[in-house]
Amino acid sequence: xNLRETDSGAEILYSGHSACPGCGAALxxxxxxxxxxxxxxxxxxxxxxxxIAGGPPLTTLKCPIxxxxxxxxxxxxxxxxxxxxQKGNRDTTVVVLAGDGGTxxxxxxxxxxxxxxxxxFIFVCYDNxxxxxxxxxxxxxxPYGCHTxxxxxxxxxxxxxxxxxxxMAAHGIPYAATATVAFPDDLAQKFVKxxxxxxxxxxxxxxxxxxxxxxxxxxxxxxxxLAVESCLFPLYEIRDGITVELTYRxxxxxxxxxxxxxxxxxxxxERWQVEALQHSVDRDWERLLQQGEGAAPF
Amino acid sequence: xxxxxxxxxxxxxxxxxRAGVDLVVAYPITPQTAIVETLAEYWARGExxxxxxxxxSEYASLAYCSGAASAGARTFTATSSHGLAYMHEMIxxxxxxxxxxxxxxxxxxxxxxxxxxPDQIDSLSQRDTGWIQLYCxxxxxxxxxILQAFALAESVLLPCMVVFDGFYVSHTYEAVDIxxxxxxxxxxxxxxxxxxxxxxRPANLHGLIGAEAQSRLxxxxxxxxxxxxxxxxxxxxxxxxxxGRSYPAVEGVACEGAKTLLVTAGSCAExxxxxxxxxxxxxxxxxxxxxxxxxxELRTRVEASGAETVIVVDRNCSPGLGGILAQEVKAALYxxxxxxxxxxxxxxxxxxxxxxxxxxxxxxxxxxxxxxPDREVWGVDLA
Lengths: 298, 383
Ligand code: SF4
Description:
The complex is a heterodimer.
Chain A: H1 3-6, H2 24-36, E1 40-45, H3 48-52, E2 64-68, H4 73-86, E3 93-99, H5 101-105, H6 108-116, E4 122-127, H7 164-169, E5 175-180, H8 184-195, E6 201-206, H9 210-213, H10 220-229, E7 236-239, E8 243-246, H11 256-261, H12 271-292
Parallel strand pairs in A: 1-2, 1-3, 3-4, 4-6, 5-6
Antiparallel strand pairs in A: 5-7, 7-8
Chain B: E1 3-6, H1 8-18, E2 23-26, H2 33-44, E3 51-54, H3 58-70, E4 75-79, H4 81-86, H5 88-96, E5 102-107, H6 121-124, E6 132-136, H7 139-156, E7 160-165, E8 174-177, H8 181-187, E9 203-205, H9 211-243, E10 250-253, E11 260-264, H10 268-275, E12 282-287, E13 289-291, H11 295-305, E14 309-314, H12 324-333, E15 342-346, H13 355-362, E16 376-378, H14 379-382
Parallel strand pairs in B: 2-3, 2-4, 4-5, 5-7, 6-7, 11-12, 11-14, 14-15, 15-16
Antiparallel strand pairs in B: 1-8, 6-13, 10-12
Helix pairs in contact in B: 1-2, 1-7, 3-5, 7-9, 11-12
């Protein structure tokens, strides 16, 4: 399967939106909305996309957009789907779009509630690893060794990033997947697959954010690719919280250093910290490989 | 019409069932829980008509309603006290988004410390959010007001909070007329307000705007609140024609020629009504609507009565200011011809209003004997 096969042909993202140059979040929405097709409703919580969506009456997307308060994304999404059904519409796909703050932090309770009830919508977390809409503040998705405006140098994040995919898998939801914009075929295929599944579907998208990450705006795809090739952000899917399947296996593991060196947010890392990070990436990758072979529970 | 002995909570739930609701979202909290439990029983028996969802918090309940209402669904949730406070962000949001959601709030004090008594501070703390607030004094009124609330909310496109006292109303068994669903349907048909989320029709709903656009939207909500009076009158006329009962925004009892007027909201009015015959020269003005606030009507009725003193009974207190209703009444009477002094009996904490307490404040010794025009008395000191 390639993009042509998964593409609905519907361009839902208009040009002229207000995302920063090189924004991975705008690209991701473009790819997945083309895959899902035009019959979607986008519920957007407080995040960069609150701005990218444009100021009413203007709009960036050719579909209904419903903005909602920060902690409420998954609850509002549940309500929209249930409300549409009560009014006789069973077909429209409801997509909830949240950043890492709206997913890992302030939105986690609603997310867990909706996942546990197996509400019938797609939750997309575009994870740029900090509060970027407010200008790069620490979230629980911010990785080890990173500095932010609320964790400035010489300090860096001492704790590892929250493992959101394991949390979601623990809810036993029908479908959860990771994806990035450097692998658009993989991303589109997963969304097409998700569209055909009933119940709660979760996406974890790693989203390079040039201003927040301190990277060049033409490095977005390269950074996404390096995250995957280094096994920092593996591409996989989980069915029913149990069956893990890798959808891409890097032919050769790229060293993490190359990925880190492209970003000023990691400029505070010392040698031993890079090694510690490499070690944890290797450990997590091994664990995932075992799970991919069904050897261990996720 | 079938009369049943039920509690205020059961009356609320039964009204929601009769209203043909599309979605109920539930989360428990004392003293509200019996409402969502009764609705769950209807649902389990296949008699609810709509969907029933157990949410993970009150915040989620209202957010859920907000999503469904934006798709055009008739939604209901119920809460109390800390639950209402936890919803606060969504309470503002739902008013701004013009969702005609109906929420029953059973009054309960706010912690710390834990207290389950029927202080009205929970709902009064939400009075600036843009929700219609209708206060009920008994179980029949709860039943009737919930039906009226759906009609009102969907007509002016504002959310509506139906408020009643914990325990005194929520847990007390009373005889309630329960019209069958098809009779109710003649008053309230299925929801037909326009859906905001309309698949296939691109729209950027509730996205970022500037100060001027926001100002115009706040103004439009303010104007919608003014339309409540006319709409409520029409609704009451239709309701009275079918069921023989109606609930004006201000209910007056024995006001003409009264020397003293008692003003309150909620079930304190029932206690007052029961002793009025024994109290010469005393009348009652009960505030059914607290938002919008019936300032004009209140002023007219106080002026017409010629009363020398107004005593507001407040089962709440805004520390540093006093009873909240007393402040609103004072504001309403400001500039009135010969505005009488407004005094305040404060029952914060949910203290019960007793006939004995009323006798003591009305025998003249408490308010008029040495107290200034702004005198306040705490009920708890009279016990
Ligand atoms: S701050 Fe980052 S995520 Fe937000 S719009 Fe800019 S590039 Fe995109």
